[in-house]
Write a structure and sequence with these properties.
The complex is a heterodimer of chains A (338) and B (290). By secondary structure, chain A is mainly alpha-helical. Chain A folds into 2 domains: 286 residues, ABC transporter involved in vitamin B12 uptake, BtuC; 34 residues. In chain A, 45% of the residues are buried. By secondary structure, chain B is mainly alpha-helical. The radius of gyration of chain B is 19 Å and the shape is globular. In chain B, helix 1 packs antiparallel against helix 10, helix 3 crosses helix 8 and helix 9 crosses helix 10. In chain B, the strands form 2 sheets. In chain B, strands 1-4 form a two-stranded antiparallel ribbon. Chain B has a two-stranded antiparallel sheet with strand order 2-3. Classes of the chains: A mainly alpha (338), B mainly alpha (290).
Chain lengths: 338, 290
């Protein structure tokens, strides 16, 4: 057991070292931008995994929190000054705002059954999209607006490291969260809500906690996304963002935290590669079809995703070895008796 | 007065289109316990297939038939390939039908091109009548009539025929119906196909009404359909008609008097209903607490 744990840490630090050193080895601009994008969506997908993977609720309103973060940062950088402190403040403000809204929305919606919850979150995020479109004096509607990023982040490399740092902090924080007693209760809710309730836990209370955590983290991802583009429009509030997070989580593996990160990498990279191919083969312009089909197949055949399936194989393999050992020991025992 | 009548007709016409969309959703949900998030995809496929048939044959009627056939066929494929593997698992159903929605929507762009298509109303349905001061647009009246006719046919089928009896029995208690020797899986399939065909018909009728069709319209109208189903009560056929008319009227009056709120009013309506009466205003059966 201890051996396995240290293996996990080795893997974590190895991956981190590679990602830290990569820009020094290969400083191609496209690669840096792609990786930054992957990290940002990794954060978003991990936050979605708290809902889908750990608490077992399907929310179609996740884009709303992403959008709140993106708009808060963009508006604050546009209206006031483009200093680093304003940027950091805007992240905090966005997270607080998203936390507050997810608390309210959660209280209203989380007592409903899965279907109704999914629909109501869809409606709420639709409401926010409408607000973003109509409140033109601040958001400039669908046209969006550009703004200047803080001096420090003009350099793509610095921003890369900043996002990487955010990713690591969030990953560790969420890892601690899902392994905390609260996280365990969330898993219990996912497995059997009725039973958790009958054990004396107020499940609504815990589901609201999960939704607040997921909302605030999604808002951080939104803030980073806005700065990475230096532009924001209503597309950050649309269903597409939620769908991206959903795809990444499902394909990577629900309820694993690492899975969504991997999923973000796979999807963002594939998106990048396929849009490159689209120049030669127009069919690839509609790459969403491939993802849609892949996603449907994943739901039917690999509901556990890449990491989940690998983990299951690993456990099966372990079980086999253990069985072999025990049966071996048994036959030895038998021989001794005879 | 003139304004009032116009707003009412407008609201009724929109309401009828949403009703056609929601009727399929509510029957599918009531019977199969499946919430079909791909319903909007079937709607938009109906619109495109119907309109292209209409433009090709220059007969609106054949266009409508084309839409219905396309919808039913897509329903058949969907039920067999997508829904059957995930019966009973709500989360997987939500996820998989949403994925299908994505595929259907993008397939539209592949097959019919990514740009919106302008649609003309057939000559015998375009124009309007003037009765005193009131101007009645023919096509809107046509939609309202079609909506009521379909409601009548379905109401008759559900209440007076053997098929309707089986469907109603299934909605009420499918284990019991199954125990009485009804092949419930087959009923599921037929109901799904009919629901899909209704969605396609709704899309086809919507096309000349809005004047232009585009791939993303599926999701927009599907959300309205969901709202109607929630307000009307899952599984309630007449409830969805009343709720659809309510949503249509609320939309048309709000668009005139408080335009800022017009997009939000339905969602607020749904939120209120869900919070205070989660089973819907006209629910037929009690939600079982499972």
């Amino acid at each position: 057991m201890k051996n396995k744990l240290s293996l996990k840490y080795v893997g974590f630090f190895l991956m981190l070292a590679i990602l830290v050193l990569l820009p020094f080895v290969n400083d191609s601009r496209t690669l840096i931008i792609l990786l930054t994008q992957i990290f940002i969506f990794g954060i978003l997908a991990m936050s979605y995994d708290i809902l889908l993977g750990y608490t077992g609720i399907v929310s179609f309103g996740h884009a709303m929190f992403f959008g709140i973060g993106a708009y808060t940062t963009a508006v604050m950088l546009k209206q006031t000054d483009t200093t680093l402190s304003i940027f950091l403040l805007s992240i905090v403000v966005g997270m607080l705002l998203a936390g507050f809204i997810s608390f309210l929305v959660g209280l209203l919606t989380l007592r409903l059954k899965s279907h109704f919850f999914a629909m109501l979150t869809l409606a709420f995020s639709g409401l926010f999209l409408v607000v973003a479109e109509k409140w033109r004096s601040v958001t400039y509607g669908n046209d969006g607006f550009t703004f200047r990023a803080p001096e420090l982040f003009r350099d793509r490399m610095t921003f890369y490291f900043f996002v990487l740092a955010c990713l690591v902090v969030i990953f560790i924080a969420l890892y601690r969260f899902v392994n905390s007693p609260t996280g365990r209760i969330l898993i219990a809710v996912r497995e059997n809500e009725q039973r958790t309730k009958s054990l004396g836990y107020n499940t609504l209370h815990y589901k609201v906690i999960a939704s607040v955590v997921a909302g605030t983290v999604a808002s951080l991802a939104g803030s980073l996304y806005a700065v990475s583009l230096r532009f924001v429009n209503t597309s950050v509030m649309t269903m597409d963002i939620t769908l991206d997070a959903l795809l990444m989580t499902i394909i990577g593996g629900v309820g694993t935290l690492v899975g969504p990160l991997l999923g973000a990498g796979v999807i963002e990279y594939a998106q990048h590669a396929l849009s490159g191919l689209a120049r030669d083969y127009p069919i690839f312009e509609r790459w969403i079809i491939f993802f849609g089909i892949l996603y449907i197949l994943a739901v039917i055949f690999f509901p556990k995703g890449i990491i989940g399936s690998l983990r299951m194989l690993y456990w099966k393999w372990r079980l086999k070895i253990k069985e072999r050992k025990t049966t071996g020991a048994l036959s030895q025992e038998k021989e001794r008796f005879e | 007065m003139e304004l009032f009548v116009n707003l009412v007709i407008n609201g009724l016409a929109t309401g009828m289109l949403i009703f056609l969309l929601a009727a399929g959703l509510t029957l599918i949900f009531g019977l199969m316990d499946v919430l079909n998030f791909a319903h909007g995809g079937l709607f938009v496929w109906g619109a495109y297939a119907g309109i292209f048939t209409y433009m090709f044959t220059e007969s609106f009627l054949i266009g409508i038939i084309g839409a219905i056939v396309t919808g039913a066929l897509l329903g058949l494929i969907t039920e067999k390939l997508i829904i059957t593997p995930v019966y009973g698992n709500h989360i997987q159903q939500i996820l998989i039908t949403l994925g299908l929605m994505l595929v259907l929507q993008e397939m539209i762009k592949v097959v019919f091109g990514p740009n919106g298509v302008a649609v003309k109303t057939p000559s015998y349905l375009s124009g309007s009548w003037e009765i005193g001061d009131v101007i009645i647009i023919k096509y809107r009246l046509f939609i309202i009539v079609v909506g009521f006719v379909i409601f009548g046919i379905f109401q008759y089928m559900l209440k007076r025929t053997k098929i309707g009896l089986i469907v109603r029995a299934g909605v009420q208690d499918k284990e019991m119906a199954q125990a009485l020797g009804i092949h419930i899986k087959r009923v599921f399939l037929y109901v799904f196909m009919v629901g899909a065909a209704l969605a396609a018909l709704s899309g086809m009728l919507m096309a000349p009404y809005s004047g232009v069709i585009y791939a993303e319209m599926g999701m927009e109208y599907a959300i309205l359909g969901f709202i109607v189903v929630v307000i009307g009560g899952m599984g309630s056929f007449s409830g969805s008609l009343l709720a659809a008319i309510l949503v249509g009227l609320a939309g048309s009056f709000m668009a005139y008097y408080v335009p800022v709120l017009s997009l939000a009013v339905n969602m607020i309506l749904m939120a209120i209903v869900l919070i205070f009466r989660p089973q819907g205003l006209f629910a037929m059966r009690k939600e079982r607490s499972t």
